[in-house]
Prior knowledge:
Blueprint: H1 2-15, H2 18-24, E1 37-40, E2 43-46
Amino acid sequence: MLEDTVANAYAQIEERCYETELISEGFSQAQIRKYGFAFKGKECLIG
Length: 47
């Protein structure tokens, strides 16, 4: 299910602390966007 894949991608972003790393490199929180992508054939879901 595409929704589950998007949720898993977002969970991975949180688990790996990418936001914290970007902030430590000088990015502001307002500059950071988090997206999860899922593909199935020609279907695509971005969440």
